[in-house]
Amino acid sequence: MASQVVSGLFLKANEVRVVTLSGYRGEHELIAPKVNKFSLLKNPQQGDVQQFIAQLQAYISEHHVAKVVLNRRATSGQGAGGAGTFLMEGAILACIGVDIEFVHPATLRATDKRCGALKPAKPTTVDLGKAYDLAFEALVD
Known about the structure:
single chain; 4 helices
């Protein structure tokens, strides 16, 4: 199976942290490490959402991203996603033209235990680390 370019999008509050990887689980590289965050105003207007999506689409197109992986939001209870993540998730689902996959945090933890040694390029920042884990999840062996 051929390698592909995948982006992990970690949704938190009104920000999306982005890490893009290319290659395979055993051997991959970070793509565009300087671009790692897109924001949406807390109370956005229609134009703000359109601009957010346009920036994300331009990034995906520029880096030839084949798949986007999002964190599965908790819908109730402690840690439930707020209005910002709900809005961004809906806009991404409606407007991004590549495959989108959701991954549960428990799946990320299990993969991290099993494959942690294969992640030497994982960012040390917590949110970027989670975005990296999301992208890593979509890489093939």
